[in-house]
Write a structure and sequence with these properties.
9 strands, alpha+beta, elongated, four-stranded mixed sheet, 208 residues
C-alpha cells in the first residue's frame, strides 16, 4: 500500500512503503553476549546443539557422567548450572509456526523447554570490567539475554521488515532492511527516513 498524505502539511513527493523482509540476517551471527544451546530434532534454534540435556549439563559443570537420566537429576544439574553461569531457560511453542521465549508457555501440549541462553561469569567480567557480579548486575545481564532472545524470536517468526522510499514516478530513492519488530521508532526505521516522511508511519500498512 502506498500512503497518500492526509493534508497539505504532510505533502511530499516521496512515498514510504514497508515490506516483510524475507531474507533477514540471522541475529545469532552477530556479536552476541549469550550463547544459545538447544535440543530439538526439527529446528535450528541457536548456536550449539546440546544432545542429551543431562549429558550436556554434566559436561558444562565439569562432572563425570553418572548415567542417571531422571527428572530429579535434571533439576539438580540445572540448578547448579544456573549458579555457575548467568543463564535463562528457553521454551518453544510450536503450533502453526514457532516462537521462543525465556518463560514457559501456558499450553503445555505444544510447548516445552528446549535449552538455555547462557554466558560465563568470566566473560561477563571481561566484557563489563566487573570484579564482582552482584545480584543487581546479574539481573542486568539477564535482561541482555532476554533482549537477545526477543530479537531471535522476531527472526524466527518473520517479524523483520524493510522499507522503500519511492517517488511519484515509482523510482526508489532509498531502501534498507533488517528492522526487527513493528515499532517503527524503536526498530530504527524512523531514524533512517527523512523527517518529512514520519507522518506516513502512522498510516503505512505492511506488504507481504
Amino acid at each position: 500500500m502506498i500512503v497518500e498524505p492526509k493534508n497539505p502539511k504532510d505533502m511530499s513527493d516521496k512515498r514510504l512503503r514497508i515490506f516483510a523482509d524475507n531474507l533477514p540476517e540471522n541475529p545469532r551471527s552477530w556479536d552476541n553476549l549469550g550463547t544459545i544451546a538447544y535440543n530439538h530434532k526439527k529446528y535450528l534454534l541457536g548456536d550449539e546443539e546440546m544432545g542429551d540435556p543431562i549429558d550436556w549439563l554434566e559436561s558444562m559443570l565439569g562432572l563425570e557422567p553418572r548415567g542417571i537420566y531422571t527428572q530429579d537429576r535434571m533439576e539438580y544439574l540445572q540448578e547448579r548450572f544456573m549458579r555457575k553461569f548467568v543463564a535463562l531457560p528457553l521454551y518453544l511453542y510450536d503450533h502453526s509456526g514457532i516462537t521462543i521465549q525465556t518463560t514457559p508457555f501456558s499450553c503445555r501440549w505444544d510447548s516445552g523447554q528446549v535449552g538455555y541462553i547462557y554466558v560465563s561469569k568470566d566473560k561477563v567480567r571481561e566484557e563489563f570490567g566487573w570484579n564482582l557480579i552482584t545480584n543487581k548486575r546479574r539481573e542486568r545481564i539477564e535482561d541482555y539475554l532476554r533482549g537477545e532472545i526477543k530479537t531471535f524470536d522476531q527472526y524466527i517468526r518473520g517479524d523483520v521488515y524493510y522499507f522503500n522510499v519511492e517517488g511519484n514516478d515509482g523510482d526508489t530513492h532509498d531502501s534498507c532492511g533488517g528492522f526487527f519488530g513493528t515499532d517503527w521508532e524503536t526498530n530504527g526505521i524512523k531514524e533512517h527516513i527523512d523527517e518529512e516522511l514520519w507522518p506516513q508511519l502512522d498510516e503505512v500498512e505492511i506488504e507481504y
